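HOLO CASE FILE
Compound: heme C
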Amino acid sequence: MCCRYPGMPKQVYILLALFSLTGFFFIFKTQGNKKKEENAFLKLIPNEYRNGIYLYPANPFSEEKALVGRYLFYDRRLSFNQTRSCASCHDPKFSFTDGYRRSVGAVGDLHQRNSSPLINLVFDRYLTAADPSLNYPEQQLDNPMFHTDPIELGWKGNEKEILRRLNQDQYYQAKMKAAFPGDKDPFTVKNVQYSLASFVKTIISFNSPYDQYKSGERQLSDMEKKGMELFFSSKLNCSRCHGGANFSSPSLTDSEGNLQHYFNTGLYEQYPNSDQGLYQKTLLEKDKGKFRVPTLRNLAFTAPYFHDGSVQTLDEVIMAYESGGKNHPNKHPLIKGFQLKSVERKALVNFLITLSDSSICNNKSFSNPFEKDETKY
Ligand code: HEC
Ligand code: HEC
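Model generated. Tokens follow.
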């Protein structure tokens, strides 16, 4: 016996044994709870897509967290001057984007990028257009809350005041307690972020005409089918980058066989200094102008397009690919141009539109829960 000390009374052994048993029980129980919480989340996702999702281990899903997160998401008290909420830049009407080329923060600062549609985020390996350190919504929320250049919600230096504001509200007092039952003071930056992240994860969108076609519930028109063939063809190669459940998972590797996630598509000959994509994080010349592959779901609601919202229509997006993009030393070899008849371009646009799920824009589970004023119940 490894830990037998001479002279230790028998009662101590019994106590130790009991302690380790309860310890095991505790571990099994927490693992059981984790599983239960994960299952509660998986229920939201169609069977065929349940593999390959990314969930932040430190924040097991719970409906209580998602519920309070939904209120926080729409609450203007979340900006320091009570003018903007998450939903100001992520409006369900536009599949959680905002219709602007670049988003506008709480004091009118222009964001460097176009707003992202917050759908099916658990399928995306990397969040935001060009930051490989952000893999989960939980990790991304420091950006909108604490950014100072530009100011988005303006939490920096105001976090105590904003938390106090929320803590004064009886609704949040009850709901934060329910969401974080173990915490003496549930009003922390981390808990606000965990709640918001839990809510945005529930925004699952798989009810597009294309999804209905895949499950045999509807037909696609001849034009849409023609567009689908083009999309998956080796002439256009769209699906080599826009693959997977979310049309955002590339299957291209570099010369060493590593899967690539960021690409230069020749949008500019010289990317502006204000946004050089992945280069801003790695400072490697080869990463200039590289951006993550965005989802192609819900494009019908998310114009304008590209990381800077510089292109207004899907026709123009496709024409940019047809032309093979601008010259850039980092441009991916698959962006080499091709020719389409105008009817084929139309077919491709029609197919892309079949990936849009209009039920997302007024789904009662994600909509604004406030009745009138987004600072009062
Ligand atoms: C001022 C406008 C603005 C506000 C306010 C804002 N966002 Fe965003 N959000 C953006 C923009 C722009 C991006 C794209 C950023 C990028 O690519 O670098 C983004 C990206 C995201 C992403 C990453 C999505 C993806 O596909 O990678 C998440 C998650 C997110 N926002 C959630 C939130 C939440 C939750 C809030 C409220 C706390 C919030 N945002 C507030 C503009 C905003
Ligand atoms: C080499 C990889 C690659 C290939 C091939 C590719 N794309 Fe892209 N796609 C990207 C990247 C990366 C972006 C983001 C670029 C940016 O924002 O600067 C993008 C952006 C888009 C957008 C804008 C989405 C939005 O919400 O802003 C659309 C639409 C699109 N691609 C459609 C297509 C179509 C159609 C094809 C086939 C003709 C195609 N892509 C081929 C990588 C690729």
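CASE NOTES: The longest helix spans residues 10-42. The CA atoms of residues 77 and 191 lie 16 Å apart.
CLOSED: yes
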